[in-house]
Amino acid sequence: MQLGFVCALLSLLAGNSWADTRAIGAQECHPNSQPWQAGLFYVTRNPYRLLCGATLVSDRWLLTAAHCQRPFLWVRLGEHHLQKREGPEQLFRVMDFFPHPGFKQNRITQDYKDDIMLIRLPRKARLGPAVQPLNVSETCVSPGTQCLISGWGAVSSPTVHFPVTLQCANISILEPRLCQRAYPGQISKGMLCAGLWEGGRGSCQGDSGGPLVCHGTLAGVVSGGSELCSRPHHPGVYSSVCHYVRWIRKTMEEY
Ligand SMILES: *[C@@H]1O[C@H](CO)[C@@H](O)[C@H](O)[C@H]1NC(C)=O
Ligand SMILES: *[C@@H]1O[C@H](CO)[C@@H](O)[C@H](O)[C@H]1NC(C)=O
């Protein structure tokens, strides 16, 4: 079964010059309305190369997907238009990655269990209107909950087109039963599916690692989904943050 968790992988394997997994059926976010949104880049000058999204969870830590790990990455905060200098942007070179110990990078079996990772910034972020952390969700959200995803990932698929401004989309949490039906045998306890069952809206390449915000807290981290983004009956797969609260706390306290 060609279940790609991969919007994410596509680009890694194909050497896609942009990268990893965003949002189909989205619209431009109001600038800096998602002040916890971070972008992870391989190269930060033009042509910049977006790898993943991430979420600022304190002035020193980001939460993203474990499959976004590289020897080092550039983090941009306070960003909206990727090609314009608008004022609130902050840039960090990061090397301190803390992937969840349960994550095994296995591109053959495409096991994306525990696809969650903390990143420590080399210095504190300067908080302001365009740069604010988001609390992690301690209680798990129920199916049907309306949530918001955001990212600079592809806005079309399979022919990918990348936006220059941050895109936002409302999607809902799906029943675990539907999630299992879409990806039989591949959905573990720490995962959830979100999107529209009929397709047409959801995360895509370049969105990986980015936020799923429900009730004003971080409920999910974009992990994967079907290879063609937003196909009917192949919703996006997210790491369910409520299952990792203890690990997140412990890691942030220890390091
Ligand atoms: C975030 O969590 C802190 C500590 O639990 C709490 O005091 C604060 O009100 C929360 N912020 C929001 C926006 O929910
Ligand atoms: C998401 O839904 C909220 C509330 O219904 C609405 O105010 C907002 O404009 C929607 N955002 C997008 C990007 O569709």
Automatic annotation (TrEMBL):
EC number: 3.4.21.35
Source organism of the structure: Myotis myotis
Classification via PANTHER family: KALLIKREIN-9, KALLIKREIN-RELATED
GO molecular function annotation: serine-type endopeptidase activity
Residue ranges annotated for the Peptidase S1 domain, each copy included: 23-253
Coiled coil: none
Protein name: tissue kallikrein
Entry similarity comment: Belongs to the peptidase S1 family. Snake venom subfamily.
A cellular component term, taken from the record's GO annotations: secretory granule
